[in-house]
What does this fold into?
Amino acid sequence: MTPQVARVSVREELCMTEVVPDPCAIVIFGASGDLAKRKLIPSLLQLQAAGALPGQYRVIGIGRTPVTDEQFRAKMRLELPAGTGAAQAENFLGRLSYFSGDIISPGFYQALKEKLDALSREYGLKGRLFYLSTPPQAYPGIIEQLALAGLSRADGAGTAWVRAVIEKPFGTDLASARALNALVHNCFSENQVYRIDHYLGKETVQNILMFRFANTLFEPAWNRNHIDHVQITSAETLGVEHRAGYYDRSGVLRDMFQNHLMQLLAMIAMEPPVRFEADAVRDKKVDVLKAVRPFGEKELAGNFVRAQYAAGVMDGKPAAAYRAEPDVPADSATPTFAALKLEIDNWRWQGVPFYIRSGKRLGARLTEIAVHFKNVPVSIFKPLPADQLCANVLRFRIQPEEAITIRFEAKKPGPKLCISTVNMDFNYREGFGTPPPESYGRLFLDAMTGDQTIFARADGVEESWNILEPVLARAAADGVKGLAFYPAGSWGPAESAALLARDGREWDS
Ligand code: BG6
It folds into this structure.
């Protein structure tokens, strides 16, 4: 099949009102960690360069290691995106400071409060954003201590708002997520809480809602009458890297399914919200999760595959097995790949399977949602039977090469009557003249302006843990029994293909 490209022209933009954030203090717990270096600091710089930040803001890095402001700035300078101009860099770095101490001691929070009060007076800061990017075990202590020090509420005088941004993972199962939510709600109101799922900050994920609800063409067909099934894939080429300590306890179900993949499912399957506002959107997303058919014994048998990568070949080079990676136990039963078949019990989706898979060390990096439409009911192109005509597929390519494509049948030019499968292809880079920006910038900006639309709400997080509870329990009970293996660089184990083959279908890749 040779794909053909139909060019798409983009008309001038229509913008919803953009709110400029108030002058504020951004307090990053875990500032010497990987996330702060790789994502948080560079995206703040990019926001500044784009003129999206307020005239006054201060970034306070928090960590245990004693480091001076100058040393912190020098370290962060190394993380600024290539090509950052000298004036831009100096302006940004001058706003950074560092505050070290024992983050479980009440005295530390009193000192932090004094520092923040002083900064607020000096720079007229109105808001405080506490960003938790420490290991998750530290979250409860930080949240409690912030509240005890009087830092979790606006003081009504200088400080107009206080918000807490909480990185994933939010809990390790339903009970721990509930306990963390309860603690959070003792200290903050839900409208102060911004639970991060960085997939929701991706332009291509946000665009699912624009695509579905700012156009009329697709929504009438977005249901069980026209859609045969949906495939959601998040494939990574990376292995566990240096994160075995965290990953071996989490595995792919906690690391990718509970958050990113459930969010993609909710966005693709949700009903139209009454308006594009945080709770209206999140209500509809939670409805989808509530309607997912619970995994009983019957559903688990045959609808769930878990596997781990064995040695293989990536990019022509030998790649080690998961169990041979640094710090991974030699008998680990942690899945690095899983595939699930989900059913959604509501009027729109009854009988439409959603096949969802994710894994590390797969054949290519690809995150995609493929909506497979039904076959034509009858073929008028005799002798070609209906089932030999390719069904339409609408693909949301989340990353890389961000795109939306529609596969359809067309007459191949020429004297003979031949039908070919072609693609209509909208590519973000070509369409908008620029690749989509990093997700953390959007997440920061929305937290600073108080827009919770792209953050997970307490009930949503619990619902998605609830869906996975029986799956996690089965995996824990069976351990290595029932764990499949796949060569690094492949597309997963044979059991994953069999999951669809049983329904007469196959994965797109
Ligand atoms: C993170 C997971 O949440 O998402 C990682 O902890 C995973 O294991 C990453 O690699 C994938 O994110 P992205 O944006 O590269 O698809």
Remarks:
- The longest helix spans residues 244-269.
- Confidence is low (pLDDT under 50) at residues 1-8.
